[in-house]
Amino acid sequence: MAENINEEFDWDNLSDEEWNKRLDEKIAMFNEGRGEVKLPPPSTAIMTDEYERGINYKYITEDLIRHFADACGDPNPIWRDPTYASGTRWGGIIAPPLFESCIAFGSAFGGRLRVPGIARLAGGSKHDYLKPIRPGDSFSIYDRYAGFEEKQVEGKPYRMFIESVPRYYINQKDEIVAVETHRNIYMATPPGKRGKKVKEAKMYQDKVRRVYTQEELDMIHQNYDDQLDGKFRRGAKTRYWEEVEVGEKIPTIIKGPVDVADACARTMVSCYPYAYAIKWAVMREHLQHHPIDPDTGEHILRRDWHYTDHAANIFGYPYANSAGIQNEMMLVHGITDWMGDDAFVKSADSQDRRMVFFGDMTYVKGEVSKKYVDENNDHVVEVHVWGENQDGVLHTKSDFIVKLPSRAEYNRPL
Fold this sequence. Notes:
Blueprint: H1 16-31, E1 37-38, H2 62-72, H3 82-86, H4 100-103, E2 118-129, E3 139-144, E4 147-151, E5 159-171, E6 176-188, H5 214-228, E7 253-255, H6 260-270, H7 276-283, H8 309-314, H9 324-339, E8 344-352, E9 362-373, E10 379-388, E11 394-403
Antiparallel strand pairs: 1-3, 2-6, 2-8, 3-5, 4-5, 5-6, 7-9, 8-11, 9-10, 10-11
Pfam family, one: FAS1_DH_region
Protein name: MaoC like domain protein
InterPro entries: FAS1-like_DH_region, HotDog_dom_sf
């Protein structure tokens, strides 16, 4: 697949018509490579592109699973207590959904459409699970390119594209355990329309950080105490498929106010550590995408907007924001508490709709939207789960397909 297409012309000085023509040519060239399989860089390699990512953790340990659960804020003993987990039908600790983001997150195809006028954002991911991930597993990965699709947007000066790349996770038995389809959103604005207020950041220009009342904080802390006490957790009490009703709601789980400690907890387990010279290596060939810090004169790694308000301000946003995958991780806690130890998440299809800024709350809510027996004769339910901020605005949503035990087939292996 061609990675670059005649970059000799000046994108900023093209007419809007020519700019769109060149963009279409570039995307068509990428899409000619649909289906191409690509191995990631070796784990020993020093990355030269922040978005070209390989294995992060090859070997799965009890500690790594526990740390991931900690980063979700989830105290469930099935993720952390070997004695408890050995008494479940799994016979030991297993990893929560989205854990594959620890193993490797993103794709080997890197960040594309690196031309002026392109804004790139996380678009959520589709996660499919064939088997549980356990301590002692080891993984290899490969990616299969799925290309760009344009989404029609009304009344906007930009065009919107979604790029998808499925990543396959292969365990030591050569089994495909999980497939994560990473989605990126690209907003493409031609030169003649960039003077208008078209940036996605503009919708947040009036954002003001909330100061919570003591009554609100007491409510938050009570919910946290209830989480720690397992009040919302189904646990060892089997939730049978026959007992579930469409429209049934899951308990509300609270997260926040999100802060830098929360962001760093996620970074520790499912983000690639770049510092000093290693950080420079992923930046130096793409400096136009890593802005200069006016306080130091040096370029900053663009992901810094997930950690400091100062970096977020440089990008035009009011406050630091939690990463898209972190927002998806919040929803996992709600569904796994509801479904209980005997259930298995077969898939999670997530969409990132709005940013979650430092200081924002998340109320994880959900309800059962479907109930059926699938093509594998599994008894499943679809549960729509979403996160709302303190103003009731939805920021992330996910549809989980959960396999539940049936009373008629309880002893059938999951």
